[in-house]
Specification:
Elements (H helix, E strand, L loop, with lengths): L4 E5 L3 H12 L2 E2 L3 E2 L6 E6 L5 E6 L18 E4 L3 H13 L3 E8 L5 E6 L5 E5 L1
Amino acid sequence: MKIEHIAMYVNDLEAARDFFVRFFGGCANSGYLNPRTQFRSYFISFDDGSRLELMTRPDMSDEAKTPVRTGYAHIAFSVGSKEAVDRLTEQLRAAGYSVISGPRTTGDGCYESSIAAIEGNVIEITV
């Protein structure tokens, strides 16, 4: 069994799409629109076959995204090496995204950084 995809609601669909294409090498489909509900989405595909569905619609709520809450905490991307974690973290920092933690070796031995990226959602970058 494998996770087929993860879905995330966002306010700015195109900015979210561009973020995952630019920084994580994703490939976006041409998008989908439901004309009745105005639901719109893109599927972003990654080299390993995993996919992320980015979605928006005009009637969704936008609650505060505190770091410690119930629900999904973050999406983690493995970039292959400590050097790649460092490099991508610095690219994101230079692009104006907030680095929440790291790069660092965590207590459980993982080398990672965490970025407050798309609309406050946390992206983890790990080896």
